[in-house]
Amino acid sequence: MNRTLQSVRNTIKVKPTYTLPVYPTFNAKQKQPFVPPITHSKTTIDALQSLANSKSFYAIAEIKSKPFHVAVSDIIITMRMNDLAIGDVIQLDRVREIGSEKGSLVGNPYILPAYFNMKAVVLEHTQAKPITRRHWKVSGDDKYVTNQSHHTVLRIVDISINTSQ
User: Fold this and answer.
1) CA dist., res. 133 & res. 151, Å (int)
2) Mind listing the pLDDT tens digit for each residue in 23-32?
């Protein structure tokens, strides 16, 4: 058995794998995350400055792969985030669009996190009302199934545009 397996392994041709260059995620000297330098065009800087002069903003943020249309002090109910505690402040970096009455900034698919700050605070972890349904093909004790979803409630604290480039 072992000889036939070994001979089969020897006859299989494996394509070579190509590796991509790996960039360091931390700067070794300063122990800070590695951020590649970003140069912005004059039109981008002008657009950010005109957008930053607005008083209120809206954003389309993606939380757990679902888009939410939010503004400051909005409350979001999303699926449970187990690694967060009540009172934690999180930085949202997956934003598709930020706008105001003066215009909007649309990402492809996301806006660079260097352009904005968006923070949310965890208010509570809740449970939904239990949903019980009946299996029509099952008999006995497993006839009814109960499902209760767990949620995390977030409040948007800050949406701002970075103009210092």
Assistant:
1) 21
2) 444 445 555 5
Find out whether 98 and 70 touch, Cβ atoms under 8 Å. Answer: no
- Which residues does residue 62 pair with via DSSP β-bridges, in sequence order? 67
For residue 123, which of 68, 78, 64 has the smallest C-alpha distance? 78
> Is there a contact between 77 and 150 (Cβ–Cβ < 8 Å)?
no
CA-nearest of 117, 125, 129, 120 to 75 is 120
Q: Is 11 left (phi over 0), alpha (psi -120 to 50) or beta?
A: alpha
pLDDT tens, position by position, 39-92: 777 887 888 888 888 888 999 999 999 999 999 999 999 999 999 999 999 999
Could you tell me the pTM of the whole model? Answer: 0.69
CA distances in angstroms from 93 to 22, 29, 118, listed in the order given = 22, 26, 7
CA angle 142, 143, 146 (to 5 degrees): 80
